Fold these 3 entries.
Entry 1:
Amino acid sequence: MPRVKKKILNVLYQSDDNYAVVSAISIASLLENNKTLDEIHIFYCGYKLSKQSKDRLKKLVEKYPNAYLTFINPNTYHKKLQKLGVKPWHGVYVTWLKMLALADLDIKTDRVLYLNPHTIITSSLDGLLELDFEKNIMALAYDTLTNQHKATIGLQPTDGYYNCGIMLINHKKWLKDDVSSQVVEHLSKKSDYVIADQDLCNVMFRGQIKTLDIAYNFSSAFYAYRPQDLLRINNLKQPYFYSYDEIMTNYYSPKIIHSLYGIQGKPWEVGNKHPNRLLWQKYFALTPWKNTELPHAKKTLVWYLYDVLPRPIFMQLYIMAVERKFAEVDKEKTETTEANVR
């Protein structure tokens, strides 16, 4: 009889100690909904993780007989990023770590799935095990960011702009082409991207990205706003974004929900009004942190405006504010570059 191929999923997470509990919630959802896989190998690149956080993560993963956990020491990557002069993202280098760590993962298959801690897995991910990369370096889903952002990184309006919160990496090709060295070379010349590694990937791997089904990276923004309004105001349309029908087909049954929307608190915070908060509460209860008090959501002016303004008006104002911020950052970068040239 022919030998049955094992179903093996390799997953990479990264965070600092503050986000260990958030990662744990995501990991709990991953393991709960993928018990039929033969092996799930979780690689955790944790910056300044406390012993308590490591012990709790181990305790969580040990509950599942098909799951294995390996911690990755990020110190070498952190020092290299500093030496390259890479700009920290929100004061830390965590978001960049995966770009260097990928080359060092010891895995049994040709692929690895990177998951941002802001994710809830609601279904089996076995469909990713045999996905055809078609010679591409990675498979990503489109981002819901306003279409105008593309111009700031040199993309055309009709180019796809992809989200890097969920990345299916062609690890075999990554190693063969020594992509990590290419990333280091790129960062030595330019790293001042507004959206850090996500902008870098869209620029560096343009034409080498396979579009991932929206089911594997379903933005929580579609629950916070009417999908048709989000598409219209952000100027998102085919062929560089998903159709309205594709969104609605997956609306009630996506495989991975990416919790990007945080206007009324992050979904794990106490007192939040996030549209996916009940899912986060469900999986939080399965973690060793379940008796720990989480941070409280902060009520800002934007929170109250979201409650009182008609949704399309709020969205338009919010997008204008985001675009203005991007413009300010871009202007600051240009002025800095010109000053350095002088």
Entry 2:
Amino acid sequence: MAQEINVAVTGNEPILDFDYNSSRLVLDALPELITREGKKNIRVRKLAQDSLDTYADVRSVSRKVWAGKRKVFLPKPDAGDEDTTIDIDVVVHLGMELREKTFGLETQARRDVYDKPGSDGKHLGTNLFIEKGLPEVLNTSFGVHAAWEKDTPCFVSDDAGSYFSEFRLYSSLAEALEHHEDKKGKVLFLHVPKKRDPEAIQFAADLAAAYFKAVADDKVLTDTNA
């Protein structure tokens, strides 16, 4: 029986005219270990690299986080541990919310809506998800809203914006469905406010950690990590 729940978390590069991305700042502020008395602790596996707004990088990141190689996560592994493998239980993508001043929980991602170029100027091109016959819509398996802190405003959305937030969610859900059958649906996308002051970042990190704790009690995980 696993002694800890491993949550892989990603943050993103600066976007548009911003010289920062609050998702990366929140990621950096997360604790490496979330303790839970009488329950399995949660090990936060922070992807070392920024996730870029390019189709190639998003696909690469989805493969990396689910593959679980120790060397791609912070803190840096000890010598000799770089190629050890972590059994990732949940993938959480953080993103900076531009449309709202609050937190956002995304519930699903679509396959066929990616017609804009990435930050490298390149379009998706051939949509391999279509060629492979993957579903038009993929959903997270978690009860995303049930686990949220009730006193903190947030929105729950089934439209992540048909750009890289949604593509990240679809990509990682597809990777789990294709190559990690026991992990299918175990992906979350949390939008965090675009504030960058230290107090706001710490608040968002604390809230995200509390959310991870609640998600760890979701039946989706408790049934498979018993």
Entry 3:
Amino acid sequence: MQYEEHVSLLPIILCGGAGSRLWPVSRESHPKPFIRLADGESLLQKAFLRAARLADVDEVLTVTNRDLFFKTEDEYREVNATGLATSFILEPFGRNTAAAIAAATVYVAATHGEQAVMLVLAADHLINDQSAFANAVEEASLLAKGGRVVTFGIQPDSPETAYGYIEADGTDIVRFVEKPDHAHAQQYVESGRFLWNSGMFCFTAGTMLRELAEHCPHILEAVKACIDVSPSSVSTGGGAQIRLEPNSFGAVPDVSVDYAVMEKCRHGSVVPCSIGWSDVGSWTALGDLATPDEHGNRVDGEALLVDVKNSYLQSSERLIGAVGVENLIVIDTPDALLIATRSRAQDVKQIYAELKSIGHEAYKVHRTVHRPWGTYTVLEEGPRFKIKRIVVKPGASLSLQMHHHRSEHWIVVSGAMSHRQLKVGTAGAA
């Protein structure tokens, strides 16, 4: 393949997740990157805009699940005012960060050259200081051009046990540490030598190819074999779209890039930074983004509180009333209600796991389900009937279905029926 001589910065957004830590708002089909914050933007949109605002960015490459592709495109379309080119590598299923980064690296090396600087970002993190972030990226880019594999270490302000740590000596990595208990986390913060592991990276495509070849050649070769047989096309965003072939992608080992490369890398560096970073990894972390009232409560939606302290309450539709409680998390959605103490926020994923094990659909989908053409919401359901509200995107269409054992009756509120298709020129519902 041909590639440009101009060395630009290519952000790689990794978009996925199980949707377990912020259940019931997040689900398997609607993971954390798609959650909207109070300002109306999703975490994914914020990640895209953060990348797009960096210097020398001509394109954004996203690695995501093929089932999330249309939602990702929709999210970008809402905020991509400048028409920045968007490319996609679509996974048939998740195989962890080593596979995702290896696939992105092989693609970038072939299309942009081995000198291209890649900036790997998570789709579901929050960074409040864009200027400090841009400065950290500039420093990391310089190190990357010198052959380093760079990670970003967050200056810790508390002894968090939900993050991994990096012991650093300047920009040199001394060691990686798995998520510690509270006592060790306290020691790390007090020492001044440890940073939170953000999971963001910067390197040239050539450097990462060499690291993969040295430390995990089986992953690199499996990814190359997969890309060789994977169909590619032009995305609606003007970039490439590669749909990874399922059988060959299934042969790629399921391991993290930290384990596969970073912990063994002899050319690793870290950029210590204070950028207002959060991985928004629990309801406590999400609630803390809001401004508390005089009693320490944070509310998203409509709530009436009497003698309530230090609690976070969120409701998308119904009024929440609470009396005489404290340190609670209450999350109300149309089909599921979560009540937890703030201290057990990290354990919400246990409910998700149990729902999945018993096959309850609440782990996977919301009552409103997103499709490439729009959404449908089940309003009422019984033994012999189901009522749905269907909203079709402007200009989109869907076909009527024929069933041998049931009939369908449509009421078109806005739009038109044409050749057994519901088509909408403007926003409409049926």
